[in-house]
Amino acid sequence: MPRHPKPLLRDILDALWQQPLWAIPFALFFGVLSAPRDAGGWVRVYEISLTYAYCIRAGLLVIARAVLPPLVGRVCRGLPETSPRRVITVSASYIGGAVLSSFGAAAIVNATFLPGLLGGPRSVLVSGLFAVVFALLFTGINVARVFYRESVARARAEAQARAELARAELRALRAQVNPHFLFNTLNSIAALIAENPAAAEDTTTRLAETFRYTLATSERSHAPLGEELAFVRSCLEIERTRFGDRLRVEEAIEPGLDHVPVPTLLLQPLVENAVLHGAGARPAGGTVRISARREGDRLVLEVADDGPGLDGGGAAGGFGLRSVRERLALAGPPHALDLESAPGAGTRVRITLPLHPAPVAGAGSTW
Fold first, then answer.
1. Largest Cα–Cα distance in the chain?
2. What is the pLDDT of residues 50-69, one digit of tens each?
3. 205 burial via Cβ count (<10 Å: 0-12, 13-18, 19+)
4. Cα angle at 332 between 311 and 210, to 5 degrees?
5. Cβ contacts of residue 289 below 8 Å, gap of 6+?
6. Contact between 143 and 194 (Cβ < 8 Å)
7. Which residues in the chain land under pLDDT 50?
8. 314 CB contacts (<8 Å, ≥6 apart)?
9. What is the spatial distance between Cα 137 and Cα 342, in angstroms, rounded to a whole number?
10. CB 257 within 8 A of CB 165
11. Where are the alpha helices (DSSP H) in the chain?
């Protein structure tokens, strides 16, 4: 059932200025049918059309505010707005009200502009047919407008829900990544304090910098790629205190991409997985490869490792990887994440993003 957030007075005021506009196309339609001989005849046709327009609008207001609420409550209780019974009930109510209002308009026209319009059975029948045509045209357009507004409202609500879900995913990702990363790093610092105080101090400083960045981006959905890469490099330096020379890092970053906006915390979970399944899975350690390049109007980011690969052809990967995948899926094409992994062949994660400006800050983002 259409909602009516506007007060009744606003609906009446809208009808006062809108109906003269509505009457123009109908006056042209019926004027072509009746072929007036002079300008006065066209004015008369417009006055008749305006009478019908005002009467039908009044009837529709009565239907919408006085008839439909109790009727839909009884007949369509609990049914969704798009259910066939609800749509038929609403449409039939509007059409019936418009037809009755058209007969009321015909009576007014008979008493004013065209005496004798309802002078006999044949005249009443012809007038009724015109009333039905007028009502169907007017009501059909209005019902279409009502359902269009509702569909737009539902689409907007769905988009807002998707955006809120994406933001919830990002908040959950931050909540999961930070304690996990902090726990591992504190263990490394504790081990370094006795044997290498300088390295422990350096690691503590880097840890503070990474959390400072996380806090600084907590209200941002996007950040420049250069900042995300700097954040990832700092995290890798901290990981190097755990793995030493067992962790090797290779980068292939195309120049000129530092200022391209990307979703915050996009690379860190992928790099953490690459470290875990690369250097962390083999005594000899492993290599993490990070690349960024343009492909037409898209930005392609890749994070790869040379570890033993993920079990189940990429079904694994942990919460971080799943969260990144879901965030990209919610954003829609061309946002995408593709994962390639095979036993003994390592893992490669490829992210595709649109290569165009995006908001770096603000709550209105879809991320």
1. 111
2. 998 898 889 888 988 889 88
3. exposed
4. 65
5. 249, 250, 251, 252, 302, 303, 304, 305
6. no
7. 1-3, 312-316, 358-367
8. 339, 340, 341, 347
9. 63
10. no
11. 8-34, 39-62, 68-75, 84-111, 121-195, 197-216, 225-243, 268-277, 318-331
